[in-house]
Structure formats: structure tokens, C-alpha cells
């Protein structure tokens, strides 16, 4: 017994060390910094204060947060609308095709985010490919402004994070298998009804996971609003990055980061609850 | 026993011994720095290609060149390493001032940098570091308007950018970094570019919020390519970066608006924590040589505060890039950026107010 426990501890320790060293410690540091002050020339002065949190509730920063939430929600909804059908399509292919399709979905991740983002600049700018085609075909006279606005930011975010939506939904659909769908079809449910009353409720944990996977990094991204938004709108990520790098105000940057983490924690708890509920449902038929 | 008579041979031998001693002493002096490695961080694409290999060959000192994208970037890296990790960093004036005030910059020994004599006298009177005690200027320049002369008329005032005519709407960009984002508005309003007065900053923010609606983007890095592609017709630009546009399209021009502008100085700072200060001084001295300064201007297209070097720069270059000929006298009528100290959070809040 005791030896088994020792062995278990040994096996878990690399993961525990990783978790403690690379997650608990840095987040703890950020939390601690958020209660200190900025020195006159940058740096951190170790005097306790709550002032940073008072500053964070400035209406100015709340409006930045509001804009970030809007972009994150838009990105998540669009990713879900595109991602669910894609996942459904992949999950219903024969097994050997599924692997190929999944690789194709993951493939963009092999290219640097910076390069993928610049590619959008090449496509979307006033003299870019899309505008050249639009003008060449006589559809428009003046170039359509596609770049340096919210539209461009959302496009960049969706194209970056879509795979993170597809994969968990695909996993949920695959686990579900085709039997329940076939059974409900036999009982007279049309395709639409099958989707809404069988598939979607049963894959809700996958949907929730996908939404979190897309929502969280979108909210924190600062590269895409900088490049595709032309720096004309700030998101929370830009704000935090700016405090650390431009203003050299680490304590306030840490405060903003802690506030963001706290908000996201609530979301993850909701997702966890949805997943548990989903698991209960799956077990329910067995209990009956 | 014969009388000892000093002969020519003895004299020669004595001389030879002396020569050996001198050589050994001198050799040990170079040997002290030879073989050491300097870690230097400069902006990307801001070091002429030959500069470092030539220095390494002449001195036997190895150089590891790191790159940063902005002042803020290297300051962040120094912050994380508590002022260490490099021997020399290239930063702009106000950041050199901040390094000095935090005790991270080493006091320079001018005796080890004889080439300081090559600098314009004015280059030692810059307010962020009077007398070059902690920093040596590498390049300097100013901020102005860079425009496509075939697509829009010659601008004269910062207002041409801040309140653009209708044909320029959505065709202009401004610099994204705090100091230069606010500069045009502060100049138009007649305030100091280092103001810490909240009312003045508020007024500038109000003006710039209106300007934002007319901008294509805030852009620190690719504004000149936006001019080349025609996406933008008029941009706020550092003179040297406007030259990268001019190099691709001679229809691109540069002008200092009538309200005036700033003089920014990019400097070299030896860090207090450096263990190779002697080698670091040698590097500073090497960069201040006339041929090094000439290479900087001819390859990086920025003016250097090195009078001897500027006199040797190819004349044709000044014709192609007229802003290289801006005389130091005019440049120095402008204010130079200073560290904002306690007012930095106020400035960054102001920028968030404009951009956010």
C-alpha cells in the first residue's frame, strides 16, 4: 500500500513540479505585484497598496474591457457557427478520411501566428488581393475598407482560433456515435430536430469547451488588434502589454491581468458545471 | 678584468629588452580585453553589416549582437534581469536618462573614448545627459511628415495631419508610441513635448481623438511601405524611416512642419552590471570612428552626431535623401524627449483614452 502511494507520488511529481513552477508561481507573483507600486523610473516599489485596483475600475479601462468582450463574443459565436458543421462533417466521414481532415484543420498551427496575421494584411488592404478582384470585376469603384477595423480583428481571431472550436466538438460528436441519430431518425425526427434535440444537447460539453478555448485566448490577444486593427482600438491584451512594456508599470499591468484571470475563472467554472451536467446525462440511461 | 665599456651592442641589447618589455606590457593590455565577449542589444537593422566584424578583427573582442524592436522592448528585458544581461544597450535619450536614474548605467570614462572628439559640440549638450556622462549618441534625427508628392499637396503644418483635408481622410497614419503619438498635438497647441500638466494632456487627447476618426492606422513599423503601396498618402514619420520609403519611391518626401518638432537621439549605454567595461568602452570608441559613423549614415540612412563622419558621407546621398542634410543647428532648436518619471502613468492613461 505504502509503496504504491510512493510510486504514485513519484509518477505525479514531474507534472506537479511543472504545475507549481510554471503556473502557480508566476500567477502568484502577478498577484503579489498587483498590490505594489511603480517606482518613479519603472520597477517595483514594495509598498502595499490597493490603489491599482481602484485605478482599474476607471470607466476608460472598463470600456476597453467591454470592447474586448464584444470581440471575444463575436469571435466565439462565429467560430461556433462555422466550427460545429465542420466538426459534424468530419465526424460523419469514414474513419480513414477523418484523420486526413483533422490534420488539415490543425495544419495552420504549424505556421507562426505573425505570418498568418500578415497574410491577412496582404489579402485585406486597400491595394490587396480582395480589393483588386472586387475592382477588377467592376463590383466597386472605390476600394472597400476591409483592414484596420473591428471586422479585420474578428476575421483574424476566427481564422486563428477556429481549430480550437472544431476539435472538442469533434471529440464529443465522435464519442456520441451515429446510433442515437439513427434511432431518432427511425422514430421520425427530421434532420433539424435531430440536431437540436439530440446532437446539440448531448455535445454541449464539447461546445462549452470549444467556446472557452476560443473565448479565452481571443480576450487576451494583443497581436491581432495591433496588426489587423491598425492599433486604432485597444483590447485588454494590448492594455496589459502596454503597462508592462510601454508604461513600465508592472504593478498596474499585474492588476489588470489578475482582474482578467478572475473573470475567466468564473467562465471556466460555468463550463465545468456544464460538462458535469453533460456527464450526468450520459450516465442517466444506465441508471434507469 | 677588463673595464666594462658600454658598446653599441649593449645599447642595442638594452633597447631590445626594453622593446620586449613594452610589447609584453602593451600585449597584456590588449590581451586583457582580447577574447572577451560583449553582449550588445541594438534595434533590428540598425547596425551596419561590417561594423562588428571589423571591430572583432581589430580588437579580438567577440560581439554577441541581440536585437530589440523598441525602446520599451529592451527596457522590459532589462527590467526582468534587474539591469543586467547585456554589456551595452542602444536606447533613445529619455531611456538612457531612466537607466542613469535607476543606477543601471555605468559612468563613462572619457579617457577611454578618445573619439568623442569627433562629435558635434552640441551633441554633448543634450539635456537628458549633459556632457555624455552616461551615454554616447549614436544617431539623431527628428520627426516630421512623410508624404507622396504625386498623390497629395505639400503639407506645411501638423494640422495637415491632425485635421486632414477630405481627400486625405483614411489615408494617413500616426506613430503608435506614446511620445510620438502625442507630439503633433502638443506642437500644434504650443506645449512642451515633455509636458506633465494634466490639463494640457487632456486638451491634446481631445484633439487626437478627433484625428483618430480620420486615420488609416497607428503604425510604428510599416508606415513607409503603406506610402509605397499608396494605402497612405501622408504619414507621421521619423526622418530616417521616411528614407526607407524614399529609397523605394523618389516621389516620397520629408518635411518638418512649421510648428517644429523634436530631436530624438539614439544612444549607447554601458550597463553598470557589465563585467567587461573596458571592452565596452573600446566598442563605443570604435563606433565613434569616422569610418564607422559614415557607414551608419550610408547604410542605416540616419544622421549621426559625428561631425567628422558626416563630412565624409557621399554627397550624392544627401541629394537622394535631403533630410540627411538637416543641419545640427536646426535640429537642436527642437526639444529633446526627457524621461517622464512619475507622470508616465498619466501619459499612458492619456494614450489609452485616445486609442481605447
Describe the fold and architecture:
The complex is a heterodimer of chains A (288) and B (356). Chain A is an all-alpha fold. Chain A has a domain at 79-277: Orthogonal Bundle (MetI-like fold). Chain A has 13 helices and two strands. In chain A, a hairpin with a 5-residue loop joins strand 1 (37-38) and strand 2 (44-45). Chain A is globular. The relative contact order of chain A is 0.12. Chain B folds into two domains: 29-140 and 264-325, Periplasmic binding protein-like II (D-Maltodextrin-Binding Protein, domain 2); 143-262 and 337-355, D-Maltodextrin-Binding Protein, domain 2, CATH 3.40.190. Chain B has 15 helices and ten strands. Chain B has a five-stranded mixed β-sheet with strand order 2-1-3-10-4. A five-stranded mixed β-sheet of chain B has the order 7-6-8-5-9, covered by helices on one side. In chain B, helix 7 packs parallel to helix 15 (344-355). Chain B is globular and about 65 Å long. Chains A and B meet through helix 3 and helix 12 of A and helix 3, strand 7 and helix 15 of B.
CATH architecture of the largest domain in chain B: 3-Layer(aba) Sandwich
What is the helix fraction of residues of chain A, given as a range?
Answer: over 70%
What letter string, H or E per element, gives the SSE order of chain B?
A: HEHEHEHEEHEHHEHEHEEHHHHHH
N- to C-terminal separation of chain B?
Answer: 99 Å
Counted by DSSP, the helix tally of chain A is 13
List the helices and strands and how they pair.
The complex is a heterodimer of chains A (288) and B (356).
Chain A: H1 2-33, E1 37-38, E2 44-45, H2 51-56, H3 59-91, H4 95-106, H5 113-124, H6 129-136, H7 150-176, H8 179-186, H9 191-202, H10 204-220, H11 223-227, H12 236-245, H13 250-287
Helix pairs in contact in A: 1-13, 3-7, 3-10, 7-10, 8-9, 10-13, 12-13
Chain B: H1 8-33, E1 37-43, H2 51-59, E2 62-68, H3 71-80, E3 88-92, H4 93-101, E4 136-141, E5 143-148, H5 159-162, E6 172-174, H6 178-189, H7 198-212, E7 215-218, H8 223-229, E8 234-238, H9 239-248, E9 252-255, E10 264-270, H10 277-287, H11 290-300, H12 307-312, H13 315-320, H14 328-331, H15 344-355
Parallel strand pairs in B: 1-2, 1-3, 6-7, 6-8
Antiparallel strand pairs in B: 3-10, 4-10, 5-8, 5-9
Helix pairs in contact in B: 6-7, 7-15, 8-9
Amino acid at each position: 500500500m505504502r509503496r504504491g502511494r510512493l510510486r504514485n507520488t513519484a509518477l505525479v511529481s514531474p507534472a506537479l513540479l511543472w504545475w507549481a513552477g510554471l503556473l502557480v508561481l508566476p500567477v502568484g507573483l502577478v498577484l503579489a505585484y498587483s498590490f505594489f507600486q511603480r517606482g518613479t523610473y519603472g520597477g517595483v516599489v514594495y509598498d502595499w497598496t490597493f490603489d491599482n485596483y481602484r485605478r482599474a475600475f476607471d470607466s476608460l479601462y472598463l470600456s476597453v474591457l467591454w470592447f474586448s468582450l464584444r470581440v471575444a463574443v463575436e469571435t466565439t459565436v462565429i467560430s461556433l457557427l462555422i466550427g460545429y458543421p465542420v466538426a459534424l462533417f468530419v465526424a460523419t466521414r469514414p474513419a480513414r478520411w477523418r484523420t486526413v481532415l483533422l490534420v488539415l484543420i490543425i495544419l495552420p498551427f504549424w505556421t507562426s501566428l505573425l505570418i498568418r496575421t500578415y497574410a491577412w494584411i496582404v489579402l485585406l488592404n486597400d491595394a490587396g488581393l480582395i480589393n483588386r478582384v472586387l475592382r477588377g470585376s467592376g463590383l466597386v469603384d472605390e476600394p472597400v475598407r476591409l483592414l484596420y477595423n473591428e471586422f479585420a480583428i474578428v476575421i483574424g481571431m476566427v481564422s486563428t482560433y477556429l481549430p480550437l472550436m472544431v476539435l472538442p466538438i469533434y471529440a464529443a460528436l465522435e464519442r456520441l456515435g451515429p446510433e442515437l441519430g439513427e434511432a431518432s431518425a427511425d422514430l421520425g425526427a427530421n434532420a433539424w430536430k435531430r440536431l437540436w434535440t439530440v446532437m446539440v444537447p448531448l455535445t454541449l460539453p464539447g461546445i462549452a469547451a470549444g467556446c472557452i478555448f476560443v473565448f479565452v485566448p481571443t480576450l487576451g490577444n494583443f497581436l491581432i488588434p495591433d496588426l489587423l486593427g491598425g492599433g486604432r482600438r485597444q483590447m485588454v491584451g494590448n492594455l496589459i502589454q502596454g503597462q508592462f512594456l510601454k508604461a513600465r508599470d508592472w504593478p498596474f499591468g499585474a492588476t489588470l491581468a489578475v482582474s482578467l484571470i478572475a473573470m475567466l475563472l468564473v467562465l471556466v467554472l460555468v463550463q465545468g458545471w456544464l460538462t458535469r451536467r453533460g456527464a450526468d446525462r450520459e450516465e442517466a440511461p444506465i441508471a434507469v | 678584468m677588463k673595464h666594462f665599456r658600454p658598446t653599441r651592442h649593449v645599447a642595442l641589447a638594452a633597447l631590445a629588452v626594453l622593446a620586449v618589455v613594452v610589447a609584453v606590457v602593451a600585449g597584456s593590455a590588449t590581451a586583457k580585453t582580447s577574447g572577451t565577449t560583449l553582449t550588445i542589444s541594438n534595434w533590428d537593422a540598425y547596425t551596419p553589416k561590417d561594423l562588428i566584424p571589423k571591430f572583432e578583427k581589430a580588437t579580438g573582442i567577440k560581439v554577441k549582437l541581440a536585437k530589440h524592436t523598441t525602446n520599451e522592448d529592451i527596457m522590459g528585458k532589462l527590467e526582468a534581469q534587474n539591469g543586467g544581461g547585456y554589456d551595452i544597450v542602444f536606447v533613445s535619450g529619455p531611456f538612457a536618462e531612466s537607466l542613469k536614474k535607476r543606477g543601471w548605467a555605468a559612468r563613462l570614462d572619457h579617457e577611454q573614448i578618445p573619439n568623442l572628439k569627433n562629435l558635434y559640440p552640441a551633441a554633448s549638450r543634450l539635456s537628458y545627459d549633459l556632457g555624455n556622462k552616461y551615454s554616447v549618441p549614436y544617431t539623431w534625427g527628428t520627426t516630421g511628415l512623410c508624404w507622396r508628392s504625386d498623390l497629395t499637396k505639400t503639407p506645411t503644418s501638423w494640422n495637415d495631419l491632425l485635421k486632414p483635408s477630405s481627400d486625405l481622410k483614411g489615408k494617413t497614419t500616426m506613430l503608435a508610441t506614446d511620445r510620438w503619438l502625442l507630439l503633433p498635438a502638443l506642437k500644434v497647441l504650443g506645449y512642451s513635448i515633455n509636458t506633465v500638466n494634466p490639463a494640457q494632456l487632456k486638451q491634446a487627447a481631445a484633439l487626437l481623438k478627433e484625428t483618430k476618426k480620420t486615420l488609416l492606422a497607428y503604425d510604428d513599423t510599416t508606415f513607409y511601405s503603406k506610402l509605397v503601396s499608396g494605402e497612405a498618402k501622408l504619414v507621421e514619420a521619423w526622418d530616417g524611416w521616411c528614407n526607407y520609403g524614399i529609397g523605394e519611391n523618389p516621389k516620397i518626401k520629408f518635411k518638418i512642419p512649421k510648428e517644429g518638432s523634436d530631436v530624438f537621439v539614439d544612444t549607447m549605454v554601458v550597463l553598470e552590471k557589465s563585467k567587461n567595461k573596458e571592452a565596452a568602452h573600446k566598442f563605443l570608441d570604435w563606433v565613434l570612428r569616422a569610418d564607422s559613423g559614415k557607414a551608419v549614415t550610408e547604410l542605416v540612412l540616419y544622421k549621426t552626431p559625428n561631425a567628422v563622419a558626416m563630412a565624409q558621407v557621399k554627397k550624392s546621398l544627401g541629394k537622394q535623401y535631403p533630410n540627411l542634410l538637416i543641419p545640427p543647428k536646426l535640429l537642436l532648436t527642437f526639444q529633446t524627449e526627457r524621461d517622464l518619471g512619475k507622470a508616465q502613468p498619466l501619459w499612458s492613461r492619456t494614450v489609452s483614452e485616445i486609442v481605447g
